[in-house]
Amino acid sequence: MSAQDLNRVHRRYITVSNTFKSAWTFHQFIQGLRKVFAEIPPIDHPADFQTVYGDLKQVSENLSETSAEAASVQLDRVASQLQPLIQDLLAVDQQVSPGQLRQFFQRVKNFDDNILTQLVKFYIYSRADGWSTDHLDKADFLSTKVAEEYNDSRVAFMLRDRTQLREMAQGFWAALKVGSLDEQDVDAWCREIKSLELEIRSIDSIDELHQHSLIQRYRELKHSLGDLFFQPRIWYSVLETNLVMKNHIQQLYRRDEQRIIAEYQQVFELEREVPVDIQLGEELSEFRIAVERFEDQLQGENIRVAELAELRERVRELVPKLKQDSSTTADTLVPPPEIRDPETGAVPIFDSSIEEEYVEENFQAIVSALDDTNPTIDPKKVALQPEIFALGLGPREVVAYRRLYGGGTCDRSLEQFVLRAAALRALIEQQVEEIKSILDDTAATREAPVYAKSRQTVRFGDLFLRRFEHRIEQAVLSSDGLEARALQILKMRMMRGYSGLWLMVHRN
Q1: DSSP-assigned beta bridge partners for residue 152
Q2: C-alpha span between 240 and 246 (Å, rounded)
Q3: Domain boundaries, the chain
Q4: pLDDT tens digits along 473-505
Q5: Against a cut of 0.85, is the pTM above it?
Q6: Nearest 5°: phi and psi at 151?
Q7: Count of alpha carbons within 13 angstroms of residue 272, beta-carbon side
Q8: What is the rounded distance in angstroms from the CA atom of residue 252 to the CA atom of residue 116?
Q9: 302/315 Cα distance (integer angstroms)
Q10: pLDDT digits over 357-366, tens only?
């Protein structure tokens, strides 16, 4: 066999070998996804991959001029074995939305750049007749993930070293085997992407961003690129614009954060005070789900403008409906006498022995669980550990525990309040589930012990929400924006659970 033929077989070996490597990495990735999203169907092909790997190893040993023909035959067999494995992976991948992919990487903070690169290559190697929108969205997200790094001094995401990214882009482009392009066409695409980037920079509010459909227009532009998405110059322009978009959205949100949060907290406040019919009750339930989804995005710093716009639109629809019935309020929430100051009758700002005793069991469960965690691990990672995640604890509550029990100096009343608020939130969730479990029991009435207990709990909830306001105000006055935001998120979580329990115990 000629040297030219041998070189051709060698190039094909590299392609098949790289395809195998990306498919095996994707197989492992799917296994990790299933630990987070149980609805993703199982896939189990380790033995088949092992067989393909063994055959590939044999091929590598036959890559000599005298046995190149045999190597070519073996490569045909390996490619035919690998193809059904790839099809099985693609079938499972169809069950994974781009949103779930983003959620996974919000939870899993540790990821290897080589793994991300191989995942992108899997989508490149496995494409058949062009790109589906989901596959390009996923490849876009993974490309950006591997190319970005957070710059603390600028409080923004930046692109990594251009030399490193150039090598990555060249690898992706070579894997596509598209060939050369007219540089004028490449210039035209880069100008169009740059034009959208400038338009994004000029936007002055999240509402304006949504009204101009900039995110959708930009997404449609990327979909129209197809293979050209990975042309090195175009790819780099896309990455730059992705980060401009991401940073600008977060900047706009931080500027308007308090106003946005106040908008939908108004719904929670009105919800407690007005009677609702079945239809409005369903709308409020859907609204709470939307708020919970938004909180997850907020904690993961992955704010989605479309969902935020939808949430704000729900607020605009619900507030007039709730205000219309506000005159029929049946019950006014007042902290019970036993938790008021005995002399002034004022609501106490700091902890009381009564509230400590009320949430003590849940408080001790939280402390006990956090006792078993490693104090050197990032609080965000601790919050994702199964036993901590099951308690609904977030990073700020992990920090509160460490400050209280780490031996250092801190505002002990604040940190105790944060943990006791978490304990009360856990109690609220328990009582909601307990009431749900007896709703179909015809013997159950609103005089059942759980209702009496829950009425007391919502009074404590009202007290804690007022305290959150006080603590947030203190943080703002101290110019501690990060602390104010962390406490605001905790208040949001408390408000959501509290409003649900209030509805259960105070509505007919």
Answers
A1: none
A2: 10
A3: 1-100, 349-508
A4: 888 778 787 888 888 888 888 888 888 888 787
A5: no
A6: -105, 110
A7: 19
A8: 29
A9: 21
A10: 788 889 999 9
